[in-house]
Design a protein that fits this description.
With 131 residues, the protein is mostly helical. The protein has one helix and no strands. It is rod-shaped, with a radius of gyration of 55 Å. The chain starts with a helix and ends with a helix.
């Protein structure tokens, strides 16, 4: 077989395979396009997730600052409550001391009144008896 005949057979075989090769190339191109579209969508999702995470990080830092400020306020309130507790105990003791003094004073008054009543009664009897 001559070189030209072999070349003609090869070209004929290639021409018969061309539609199949073109279909395979088109399918491969479509698959590559699908992969690129999916990759773009995936990248877009990852970027959105990163943005959300950055925003959440900022919010968490802000909340941490607020929590620290509230902790300081709570500590200050705790100090004030302790001081008020001390004052309440002191006032309670003063009230107790005043109650004791008042009872002692009334007891002295009762004794004095009893003595005065006894003296008045004695004086009235002496007057009645003519003494």
């Amino acid at each position: 077989m001559s070189e030209l005949a072999r070349l003609d057979i090869r070209v004929t075989n290639l021409e018969r395979e061309m539609p199949e090769v073109r279909k395979l190339a088109a399918d491969a191109s479509n698959e590559v396009g699908d992969v690129h579209a999916r990759l773009r969508a995936h990248t877009k999702s990852l970027n959105a997730l990163r943005t959300t995470q950055v925003e959440q990080g900022v919010l968490l830092r802000e909340q941490g600052v607020l929590l620290n400020e509230q902790g300081v306020l709570l500590n200050e309130q705790g100090v004030l409550l302790n001081e008020q507790g001390v004052l309440l105990r002191e006032n309670g003791q003063e009230l107790s001391d005043l109650r004791t003094e008042m009872r002692e004073g009334f007891a002295k008054l009762n004794v004095g009144m009893a003595q005065m009543t006894a003296l008045i009664t004695l004086a009235l009897r002496k007057l009645e008896n003519g003494e």
